[in-house]
Amino acid sequence: MAGEGFVAPHVDYAGIAPVIALTVGLVVILMSGVFPTTKRWAPGLAVLTLGATAGLLLWHWDDNISLVAGALRIDDLAISISLIAILSAFTTILLSVRERAAEEAGQGEYYALLIGSVLGMVLLAEAQNLVTFFVAIETLSIPLYILCATNLRREGSLESGLKYLIVGSLGSATLLYGMAFIYGGTGSTDFAGIAHGIEVKGMLHDPLILIGIALASVGLAFKTSIAPFHQWTPDVYQGAPTPITSFMAVATKAAAFAVFVRFFVVALGPETGDWQTGLAILAAISIVVGNVGALAQSSLKRLLGYSGVAQAGYMLGGIVVASEKGVSSLVFYLAAYLFMNLAAFAVVVARERETPFGDDIRGVRGLGAERPALAWPLTISMLALAGLPATAGFIGKLYLIEALVEGSFTWLAVFIAVGTMISLAYYLRVIAAMWMSPGETATATGAAGAPGPAPIISGASPEADPVDPQAGGRWYLVAPAVLAAGITVFLGVIPQPLVDFATHAGASLF
Amino acid sequence: MSATAWAWLVLLFPLAGSILIALGFRRTSWRFAGIVGTGAIALAFLCGIVALINLLGESPDARHHASSLWEYASVAGLQIKLGIYVDPLSVFMVLVVTGVSTLIHLYSFGYMQSDAGYHRFFSYLNFFVFSMLLLVLAGNFVLLIVGWAFVGFASYALISFWYRRTTATRAGMKAFVINVVGDIGLVLAAFLIFQHLGTFEYTEVFAKAPHVFHANQWSVTAICLLLLVGAFAKSAQLPLHTWLPDAMEGLTPVSSLIHAATMVTAGVYLIARTHVLFVLAPTAADIAAFVGLATLLVAASIALVMTDLKRAIAYSTMSQIGYMVVGVSIGAYSAGMFHLMTHAFFKALLFMAAGSIIAAMANEQNIDKMSGFGKAMRFTSVTMLCGGLALAAFPFTSGFFSKDEILAYASARGGMYLIFTILGYFGALLTAIYTFRLIFRVLRGEPCAEAQELIDTGHVHHAAPFNPASGEAEDTDIGFPGAEHHIAEQSPPMKVAMGILAFLALFAGFIQVPGVDKAITNFLSPVFSDSPLAAIEPSTGAAWFGLLIGGLVSLAGIGIAYWLYVASPATPRRLQERFAAVHTFLYNKWYFDEAIDILVVRPALAVGRFANRVFERYVIDGAITGGAEETIGRAGAIVRTFQNGIVRTYGLFLVFGAVGLALYFLIQQS
Amino acid sequence: MNIDWYIVLSALLFTIGAIGILVRRSPMVILLCLELMLNAANLALVAFSREVGNGQGQVFALVVMVIAACEVVVGLGLIVAIFRRKLPLDVDDLRELRG
Amino acid sequence: MINALLWVPLAFGVVGLFLPKRAVGWWATAGALATLVIGVIMAFGFDNGAAGLQDTVNTTWISGLGVNYSLGIDGLNLFLVLLTALLWVGGIAFAAFREQERPQLFFFLMLAAETATLGSFLSQDLLLFVLFFDLMLVPFYFLFGAWGVDRSAEGGPTPAQATLKMMIYTLIGSLLMLVGAIATAIISAHGGHLTFSIEAIQHQGVPLGSQRWIFWFFAAAFLVKMPAFLVHGWMPDAYRAAPLPVLVVFSGVLAKVGAYGFLRVVLPLFPQATAQFQTVILLVALASILYGSVMAFTQTNVRLIAGYSSVAQLGFITAGIFALRADGSDGAVLQMVNHGLVVAPLFIIVAILVERTGTEDLRSMGGMAMRAPVLAALFLIVALATLAMPGSANFIGEFYILNGLFQSKIVFAFIAISGVAMSAYYALRLYQGTMHNRKPDGVASREISLRDGIVLAPLVLCILGLALYPQLILHRADPSVQQSVSAVTGGEQLTSTIHQSDRQPGEFEEDQIQVQVIR
Amino acid sequence: MEAVIFFIAAIGAVVGAIGVVAARNPFYSVLALISHLFSLAVLFLLLTSAFVAAAQVVVYAGAVMVLYVFVVAYVGSAQEPTWDPVPGQRLFAGLLAFFLFVEISAAVLSSALKALSTHGPDVPAGFGYPAAIGNLLLEKFLVPFEASSVLLLIAAVGAIVLANRKPRSGPQAGDGVVSSGHSAPKARPEGATPAPASQSEPLGAPK
């Protein structure tokens, strides 16, 4: 194989156009950051890049082709996940307007890193072999390590960055080690090759493969913040600049789940019987841990972090059943999750900037009377996350549960039900704060400390002092919130389009 | 128009009257209410007469008609029509009810004049008459139950008519709840009947029963016993009688109409109506008879010592109903109904008189405080005497014939049933004694202050209104006992009513005299002809012998009463001291209230308190809700303690997870 | 020398690296320990690539080196930032976020 | 038509959001009235004899998941729908006569709640049913929470806490029900085409093994909703927190959805399981009857007296359904409507009383009949209906229920009927305690205002009307009920069966003779 | 012969690794790591992957380590106290790591894969030589190759973002004090005065 003359691989430039677009965009934005004049174009450029990429991706809708010597494969799953990531990134850009972190890092760098992360996600969603997979996952993570730390003034920001880096690297090291074993066991780094290798080499149920699967799933579970590998989630979510948190909450999860599905369903398809129950147990654990963990949180970002853990548990169900419906339900849920979270985070950002409470729940007290335009989105998103009807959340749960029951994992479905029940306790607490308790803004205009010192776990540290008392009215915060909430409800009433979308994505794997 | 059509009219008038008065309470005068109320009942009475005539026009065995307006609730195999059943028995009852009611309405027209709740009173009273008629005319058990409950409600409403008297409301509640117990008995009986006969219609039930059940089969016995629960509750037979004395809280006209003349006799009617079943269940019938007997004696014994005028009469009512129950249970149907009728007359009369006197006493009911009204209130005392004589079965008064006919029948049936005769006469003795105890103590002797005032000034005595039961001052908002009271002497309507009744009390007995005529028996015979017991009949001689004994007993009783309360007034006190224990026992009404209180009421309330204070708090809120919260909260705390912010701990957990997962994957295969 | 020896060795190194991350508190040393783990993985990859006889593992190893370098750079950058921020270079003391 | 019925309220509510404060109340009332009118029109178009569904709508909603948007009316839900429409008119009008804060939102939520409730009654698709069943809760969560009464002063919960409790309690059930519903569809599909249509599933059937656990998932949802004994923990707090106009519709209708669910879903889809667990559910029902009654006559808070009385009433209804006889279930359907018709006015009256007395403690009320005879009269009628006075439709309802119970499980009937006596006590206690006895100081004994009269009178008239002709409901409900019940009993004719031991007297004598011969 | 080298190298690697973990002083840890890397390079050679070995020496032991040394020199190498504040941390760390090791080795040794207990197949000459690796990199692994280059760029940017702080944010070091008002006490050289600048400075305005 080696030695003979070099034969350049056929590169389908149309196919990798999205990737190229992102790369180019990244470089351009970086450049723009250099000169003070062009600096403020950076957000615009970033939006442009994302738009272009989205367009290119949509252009490839429904054609499943593998690119560049089988390193990548652009199919509906990849596209749908990439689109989710891009949408999330887009919102993040909106939320980052006037965000201190962006200033600290310098516009150019900030958005370049964001785009870089998106690039990683797109690659990850399309990855077809272990090497690409690993590179992509790092391309996804490393910018995030940095972005978390970009609000250099907030100790919490640095802390979260470092924590994320350390645990993250530990995770990826484990993942890598697992990959090594899988490669060793099957002699191939291609997903297809692995599946093939497992069968022909008679490696089915072989310890070598199994240990590989175990370690790899640790790494993936870490990225998707499945308990007990979730512990970074609340801390990092709380410490990171809120726009970045929203990005991590949705996009990272989506991309990681995409590769999770691909890797397990395609590469480890033959081993399904071995890993199903294992993952199911993980799912159950994170449902419980996430939901009970969120109960007593007073920092909204932290609360959303824990709820993210629980939600990840639900979504893992879609992988557990390893069926087409499972994958579709996963994609559906991810899409729904995107909108629910965006609405919530947009509101959090707004309140963070206009109240002295940071992301503390006191910040949304009496919001219903004060700023309905923010209260409704947050309300809807909470109801949706709690899986109440007439929201996308309900349909998503319905979809997942249907997949689970069909895959005869009813017990996990019951877990989801019970978990949801617990989750009401904290989602509704937020709603109650908004509608059923008087506003506290009046009493606490002085400082966060006015009504007793802010609890330690709350993110209400004075660096988060109001940077923009009018934030609650800014279009770039209200519009995303309202829009996302609207879509959440719309998809709860007319889910058919998204269902079709998801079914396509699911079908592309089987 | 057929008899049934008239029967429907009988039902219609009182109902219409009730609604009319109720709706017009704002705009119309009290006179309007009184006239409409009385008129409606009078019309109903006339319709009853017409129905009777219609019925008499037919051959005896064709004298029963069923008629229904619409399907009330008929699905899934049940069939419940809104239907009535007209036969001699129901017509008889209709006449008694409407007749007496008319007079009592007339009486109330005067008696209630100064009551603010005048409209309400007449509306209720008409509604009661309607319910009572519904009860007697009902064509199936469900409708019977409806009427049954309606009269119960009417009695409740009228007992607690002066609803700011706590005693009154409490008494009303008691009456209602006990009556509901009775209703439940009937409902269960109906279910059982349906289970075996598949219908609720009288005609079908009575037609099928003899073929379906055999004598003393458990099911038919059960049915009869359940029916008896209803009957006893309504007719204040042991042990469900305690509500009746308390019901005397109600207005005197009400006591006389509902709690003497009509409603309380519904139990008797029920037994007579369902005699077919009782014939099939002799055991049940005997039980009924013995309960009746017991009630008869117990009530009479209590009546001996009661110092509250109305309560004393109430106990005598119980005792008299005891006679009727005995009668209809052992088979003396027509005799029972006869006594029902006569009793309606003289007992209503007695209450009216009592009401008149109480009014004169400014609402005081304690006979110890009364005396000498004989002079003060001529008319009242005369009428009261008539009633008393009838009640005491003084020879040739109505009570004399009716009561003794029952006892004569008992002796004629012989065997075990002689007990009823003997004890019946003993009861008669007691009756005579307590009746004349009242009469002597109230009418004779030196006029008391109130009486004197009446004699001197001709004005009814006035006093600050107070509640005789509790002694607390009255809330005069709701009028009566209000500004002025009304006594027969000064109120023509009352006079008329009492006069008519006095006449009836004395002479109504002559329509059924052994050997001479037996109008009632003949009239009712088509109803009871199917019962083998109806055939039994004492010979005229035996009957007259019985009457003789009865007469002597009654005279003896009156004599004793005279000796005790007139000749040597000290004796009663001595007797009291001599038999203190007995006296207190009787005075406390055999401690029935206390017993029920301890056996039923307190336990129920205790359970309630337990459920409220302990179970709800510690089990529902504590264990179930709190437990769940606790567990979840704990779990949350644990999760958060591991979330200690130290990155190395997170690493530790990650590795731990890796180890665990790897272990799982490795062992699941081997 | 048989391949499995190499693998076991790499496992040993991997676990030593893990221990390092768990017990050391200086972020720098932790980064070094990460290097250990990645290198252990590299060793495994190379060994396996020898065992299966294709070069993919080696390429993978090379890529891993690059990535390791990136992580180091970012990590060191963070460390410098923290240092500049006058915060202690001790991961245990960075625990404002918890609960 | 049926679509209009379902969506008109919501439409009005949405429009109402943009109206001025003063107008919105009337607008909402108009919306409720419009709904009622539509409902009545449909009722007139209803074919009485038929058992099947009428004017159905059925279109695919989520094709991928086999969920259809299918509605329909039959004997089971016809009158419940009417009841819903009627009570909402009452509740909304009653609220419209009073000052509400943030009225636009208030009435929007009320009307949204109506749509959700109607949806759960109308939907013929299992999943749609579950969806509406859960959805119902959301508006009430806000109504109770944001407009509720704060009890923290008297050591009670705040509205937020109370409603949170309610939500969690009720959603335990309904989430499990969601799983159950999906499982039902998938299992019954046997790998074939997945559908949630109740009829289809009934046709395909569910294997007994699965029925067993699914049954309990559904039962959990319905029993909590009612609420039944042991899972009623949310009721006291919620009832004390709720704003009274909302409580009118809440207690009037929502509890019935649970009972209705048993008839609509559980009996047809899980017949064997139903038969198997009959006794257990009956025990729960019995416990509810006794416990509810006992609590009702020891409570002193007027709301809770009414609340616990509904626990008892729902116990009766459940018992009737699980007598598994047509008459029992007929009675249950009738009783659902009746109870709605009495408990709603009851709460309106409670609201009026509270306004006049400024307290909810029975002990510090009383003597109001004097100056408010009309109110007293209306209250009296309602109270009598509550205690199932013979002659009221409630009596017929309980009569049928108990008869069914009596014929199938005699012992239960005997115990259950004791609840009737207790109901007499607590209903009268409530009436007397407020209307009769001495009037404490500070009690403003005013006559009912004309406006409230307008709200209250129609409801009372409905009670009277039904009292005269309960057949109206029974007759229409019966065919559908027969259908549901026969699913369990295997369709044997459910008329009364003569007891075996009964025989002709003739035979009896022969037996005796034989006996003698043997001797 | 081969075995001997293996063992020497292996021991070197292990010792180096332990050195990294054990050394109190970061500087020594770095040195230990370098030695470790060298011995790994030897092992790579044994596994006939010359290019990797070379890269190992050049990139790692060379470039990366130098970076380390610089940073260590910059932030100063503080002695880390020997005791561990987190109770049981070391114990569990050791135990878990041990288990992990056992599991992995067990997996390896119990694997059914024949090739594991061989030297591996005979490979063509030039296996693992730059040419072969190069081909692979530019054919099969073109994407990862390019991607990792982008990643390097990102990392560089990141390093700049984090490490280079504009002079204006100097005083804001003070924020830390305010910020950590409720966090573990720390050595804080400069005073506790919150910088008013941080409040009033208009953001988004061009500096």
Structure description:
The complex is a heteropentamer of chains A (510), B (670), C (99), D (519) and E (207). Chain A has 21 helices and two strands. Chain A is an all-alpha fold. Chain A has a two-stranded antiparallel ribbon with strand order 1-2. In chain A, a hairpin with a 4-residue loop joins strand 1 and strand 2. In chain A, helix 11 (232-239) crosses helix 14 (300-320), helix 13 (272-294) runs parallel beside helix 19 (410-435) and helix 14 runs antiparallel to helix 19. In chain B, the strands form two sheets. In chain B, strands 1-2 form a two-stranded antiparallel ribbon. In chain B, strands 3-4 form a two-stranded antiparallel sheet. In chain B, strand 3 and strand 4 (517-518) form a beta hairpin. Chain B starts with a helix and ends with a helix. Chain D has a two-stranded antiparallel sheet with strand order 1-2. Chain D is globular. Residues 493-519 of chain D have low confidence and may be disordered. Chain E is 63% helix and 0% strand. Chain E has 207 residues and is mostly helical. Chains in contact: A-B, A-C, A-D, A-E, B-C, B-D, B-E, C-E. The interface between C and E is large, with 76 and 102 residues.
Sheet having the most strands of chain B: 2 strands, antiparallel
Assembly state (oligomeric) = heteropentamer
Q: What integer is the average pLDDT of chain B?
A: 85
Low-confidence runs of chain B (pLDDT<50, min 5 residues)? none
Helix proportion of residues of chain B, in percent?
over 70%
Average pLDDT level of chain E: 77
Quick structural overview:
Chain B contains 28 helices and 4 strands.
Set out the fold topology.
The complex is a heteropentamer of chains A (510), B (670), C (99), D (519) and E (207).
Chain A: H1 13-34, H2 36-39, H3 42-59, E1 65-67, E2 72-74, H4 76-96, H5 100-105, H6 107-126, H7 130-149, H8 155-186, H9 191-200, H10 207-223, H11 232-239, H12 242-267, H13 272-294, H14 300-320, H15 324-354, H16 367-370, H17 372-385, H18 392-406, H19 410-435, H20 475-493, H21 496-507
Antiparallel strand pairs in A: 1-2
Helix pairs in contact in A: 1-3, 1-6, 3-4, 3-6, 4-6, 4-12, 4-15, 4-21, 6-7, 6-12, 7-8, 7-12, 8-9, 8-10, 8-11, 9-12, 10-12, 11-12, 11-14, 12-14, 12-15, 13-14, 13-19, 14-15, 14-18, 14-19, 15-17, 15-18, 15-20, 15-21, 17-19, 17-20, 18-19, 18-20
Chain B: H1 3-23, H2 30-56, E1 65-71, E2 81-86, H3 88-111, H4 118-137, H5 141-159, H6 166-197, H7 202-212, H8 218-235, H9 243-247, H10 252-261, H11 266-273, H12 275-280, H13 282-303, H14 309-330, H15 333-360, H16 373-376, H17 378-391, H18 398-413, H19 418-443, H20 449-457, H21 492-507, E3 512-513, E4 517-518, H22 519-528, H23 532-535, H24 540-567, H25 570-578, H26 580-587, H27 592-642, H28 647-669
Antiparallel strand pairs in B: 1-2, 3-4
Chain D: H1 2-16, H2 21-44, E1 54-62, E2 67-73, H3 75-96, H4 103-122, H5 126-147, H6 159-189, H7 198-204, H8 208-225, H9 234-241, H10 244-269, H11 271-296, H12 302-322, H13 326-357, H14 373-386, H15 393-408, H16 410-435, H17 450-468, H18 471-489, H19 505-518
Antiparallel strand pairs in D: 1-2
